[in-house]
Amino acid sequence: MNDKIFLPGSGRQLECTLNSVKVEKPAVLVIGSFSAAAAKKLASHYGAEVNLIVDDTESFLNTNLILNPGDAVKSSFMSYELTDFDSSVFDLVYAQASISGIMRNKIVKEIKRILKPGGFLSVGEIVKLKKDIPPFVNNIFLDSELDPLFTGEINDYYTKRNFTLIEEADFTDTLKEYYRTSAARLEEARAELTENEKKYNKKLLNKISHETNAYLKLGAEKFIGFKYLLLQKGEN
User: Which domains does the chain have, with CATH numbers?
Assistant: First the structure.
């Protein structure tokens, strides 16, 4: 199984996180669908079991197909904004392209609750490169239940919530390859699906097709970006 991270930001968010978070045997939580590869790499790097949560049944089933018994990753199905974890249990929470949605405020509040004082949040967020975006880009966000922050305001969003900014990086340049790969995978999937499966997944297939086409051909790249932040929770 290919362990390449297939998410906006590719492997660069994880690389930055591993280089900066020097904690021995940390308690780590990974949030998000398609994050199994990142969770496996975190577990291997730190030599510690990593918790991974997803919030829909299909993602949970797919995640368990990817994971092997020796990966030291424990996957669970739970809501991101209302987890089953005790307060102040994690040294690091890792979220790559998974909390940029309409529930962000509640999710970040929950992350603060389960992070230890002084714990780290590595977050990669889809952002708006301009405050005013055209309707076709806004429709992409609505269809995906995204609520991106403007790239110039995302730092303040977190610092106002008692996080200290440790480092930041703009990984917008990873998006073109991400959408190119998405388009290629979409065509492969369509070739393998039966007609009944295509009908059943019509909405999802059309959504992916529309999103990739808008980014690669219609100029959405001027408005959609990706920002990485490494943050530390305050002691209080």
Answer: 12-173+220-233 (3.40.50.150), 176-217 (no CATH)
